[in-house]
């Protein structure tokens, strides 16, 4: 059994009075890929955003229950959310290159933010991150060109490289390929499988085949609750809950 | 897309039911060819086996197409895996029925060693197994699949019985040797046929429950 990296315990997320996520207890194992699947509005993205305190920025959202990273409660008083977000990075649905910045500056933006000035160090991290994001060979000769000149798939890998540059322990991904063509999607999926050697990944995806292809474990969400969680192979060949079966076989309402 | 998948799955089910019914008919013709020394029926059985073989390839293609188009999961995936495995077993079952027919053809021209009561009984049980198999498949009937497994035990017992009987003939009168050996092979064909039908029942059990129990006999 792998070691636990993160864990939620009875996690509930309120939007005002409405609980968008209710009582979810999910273990996230070290250097594995955990996929969150479920229909639109099931709470999977809301749940994901609670894992690095993204909801802090939204005053109507309240989080109850526990989220532990390496046995530390990330919502405990005195914990700095900026430190948490550095350890638990996030990649969004659409690529998010900073439009005025070069490829190089995009990748090291997070490091600059925490005060790293050493040029050699920045260059070293940029190369390492771009290599990890399987983008180095494609961009190494034009690091000073604007990142917005890259293709959608390359921009998304820039976003991943930027997230990796600060050496997170966990990478959260919210439908990272939903805006990409099949070839770029495949490149990102291959990348995920390589990346899990170094970093723990939690991915929200609308694409069930993607969850089946890349993840080690899958959690099925429905109407704010986690209905089923287990090894991906088992969930896709022989799910335990009839609601999971109904959803993954497309027999759903 | 669910509707398109259901349409494909229903069609595959129908075709597999058709294949089961062809094997059943083949078995009946072969058995009548044997018990009534009817060469024409035996030939008809052999002819039918070619249709069974053709159908196997057609259904296999349909299963592969359904997997490619729909990327099925869970029960749908288990169903298609069940069909793929069942096809091989059914095709082999048809081959054994054809072997019976070939031996029946060879025996048709000569006076029978005895009345073939136990062999006919074996065939009857296997026909019942095929009927239950069709029911299990068409109606997702787990109990029917389980009864197939029980009936195969009967077939195995009848096989033991007939082997002992034929050995007695051979020991008492060596002139019966050639015919008795042929009949031994016929009995063996029925016994193997039953095993293949049993394998399919085990697969249907897997489809319906998600549990793979025991190792199917070849």
Automatic annotation (TrEMBL), chain A:
Gene3D superfamilies: P-loop containing nucleotide triphosphate hydrolases
GO molecular function per UniProt: ATP binding; ATP hydrolysis activity; phosphate transmembrane transporter activity
The entry's keywords: ATP-binding, Nucleotide-binding, Transport
GO CC annotation terms, alphabetical: membrane
ABC transporter domain segment(s): 6-248
Superkingdom in the source lineage: Bacteria
BP-aspect Gene Ontology terms: phosphate ion transmembrane transport
A Pfam family assignment: ABC_tran
SUPFAM superfamilies per the UniProt record, alphabetical: P-loop containing nucleoside triphosphate hydrolases
NCBIfam families noted in UniProt: 3a0107s01c2 (TIGR00972)
Name of this protein: Phosphate ABC transporter ATP-binding protein
Organism listed in the record: Oceanithermus profundus
TrEMBL record, chain B:
Domain PhoU: 16-103, 119-204
Localization terms from the record: Cytoplasm
Entry keyword tRNA-binding: no
Primary localization: cytoplasm
A single GO BP: phosphate ion transport
PANTHER family tied to this protein: PHOSPHATE-SPECIFIC TRANSPORT SYSTEM ACCESSORY PROTEIN PHOU
Name of the protein in its database record: Phosphate-specific transport system accessory protein PhoU
Source species of the chain: Oceanithermus profundus
Gene: phoU
């Amino acid at each position: 059994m792998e070691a636990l990296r993160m864990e939620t315990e009875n996690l509930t997320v309120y939007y005002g009075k409405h609980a968008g996520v209710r009582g979810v207890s999910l273990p996230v194992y070290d250097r594995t890929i955990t996929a969150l699947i479920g229909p639109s509005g099931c709470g999977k993205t809301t749940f994901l955003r609670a894992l690095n305190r993204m909801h802090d920025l939204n005053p109507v959202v309240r989080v109850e229950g526990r989220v532990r990273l390496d046995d530390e409660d990330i919502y405990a008083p005195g914990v700095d959310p900026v430190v948490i977000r550095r350890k638990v990075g996030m990649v969004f649905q659409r690529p998010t290159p900073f439009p005025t910045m070069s490829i190089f500056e995009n990748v090291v933006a997070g490091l600059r933010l925490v005060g790293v000035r050493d040029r050699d160090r920045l260059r070293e991290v940029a190369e390492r991150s771009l290599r990890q994001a399987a983008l180095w060979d494609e961009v190494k000769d034009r690091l000073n060109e604007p990142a917005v000149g890259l293709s959608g798939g390359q921009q998304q890998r820039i976003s991943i490289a930027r997230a990796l540059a600060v050496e997170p322990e966990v990478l959260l991904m919210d439908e990272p390929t939903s805006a990409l063509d099949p070839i770029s999607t495949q490149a990102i999926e291959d990348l995920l499988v390589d990346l899990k050697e170094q970093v723990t990944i939690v991915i929200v995806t609308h694409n069930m085949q993607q969850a089946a292809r890349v993840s080690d474990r899958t959690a099925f969400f429905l109407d704010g609750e986690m209905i089923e969680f287990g090894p991906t192979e088992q969930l896709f060949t022989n799910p335990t809950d009839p609601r999971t079966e109904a959803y993954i076989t497309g027999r759903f309402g | 897309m669910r509707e398109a998948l259901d349409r494909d799955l229903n069609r595959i089910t129908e075709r597999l039911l058709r294949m089961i019914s062809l094997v059943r008919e083949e078995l009946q013709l072969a058995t009548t060819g044997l018990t009534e020394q009817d060469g024409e029926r035996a030939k008809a059985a052999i002819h039918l086996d070619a249709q069974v073989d053709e159908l196997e390839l057609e259904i296999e293609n349909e299963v592969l197409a359904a997997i490619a188009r729909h990327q099925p999961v869970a029960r749908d995936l288990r169903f298609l895996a069940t069909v793929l495995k069942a096809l091989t077993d059914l095709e082999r079952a048809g081959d054994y029925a054809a072997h019976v027919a070939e031996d029946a053809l060879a025996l048709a021209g000569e006076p029978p060693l005895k009345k073939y009561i136990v062999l006919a009984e074996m065939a009857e049980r296997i026909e019942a197994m095929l009927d239950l198999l069709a029911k299990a498949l068409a109606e997702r009937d787990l109990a029917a699949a389980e009864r197939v497994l029980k009936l195969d035990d009967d077939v195995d017992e009848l096989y033991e019985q007939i082997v002992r009987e034929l050995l007695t003939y051979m020991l008492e009168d060596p002139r019966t040797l050639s015919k008795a050996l042929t009949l031994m092979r016929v009995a063996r064909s029925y016994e193997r046929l039953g095993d293949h039908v049993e394998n399919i029942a085990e697969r249907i059990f897997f489809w319906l429950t998600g549990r793979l129990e025991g190792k199917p006999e070849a």
